[in-house]
Write a structure and sequence with these properties.
This protein folds into two domains: 83 residues, Elongation Factor Tu (Ef-tu), domain 3 (Beta Barrel); 64 residues, Roll (SH3 type barrels). By secondary structure, it is mainly beta. The protein is elongated, with a radius of gyration of 19 Å. It has two helices and 13 strands, in the order E-E-E-E-E-E-H-E-H-E-E-E-E-E-E. It has a six-stranded mixed sheet. A five-stranded antiparallel sheet has the order 5-6-2-1-7. The protein has a two-stranded antiparallel ribbon with strand order 3-4. 6% of the residues lie in helices and 42% in strands.
Amino acid sequence: MSDLICVGVVAGAFGVRGEVRLKSFCAIPEEIEDYSPLSNEDGSKSYSLTLTRPVKNGFAALLGGIDTKEQADAVKGLRLFARRDQLPKLPDDEYYHTDLIGLEVYDTGGTLLGTVKSVQNHGASDLLEIHGPGLKATVLLPFTLAAVPTVDLGQGRIIADPPDGLF
């Protein structure tokens, strides 16, 4: 498990005074500010974060070291990470997406189905994007208790009971 968790991304500049448009991936979006300072993906650079106001699909925010529109444009796409120890401990049946990526997926008979490449959410619920050598195409497995009864982070695997015909 990674020590850094992605909590947001810079979507571009907002205005001409160095503010950025920020998308928060936190369950309560404005709580992203509580995890400041945030870092880039490899942890080599740190940014203080101050939310200035809500805007469509996110927030306008000030990032430490970003003072001009040009600097804000230059960090578009920057993924912002918080340390795992800053984040709340999750209940037993909830997981950070980053912890699921890379887990092997087995069916209830012990047959390897593939590996989790990403976690998608298109509005209804989370879907695990499964890739594997025996699969002709990507499989999207619903991340529900019925389809995924067991997640074993310690063993690095998921036990799935996929709907008939999915694999």
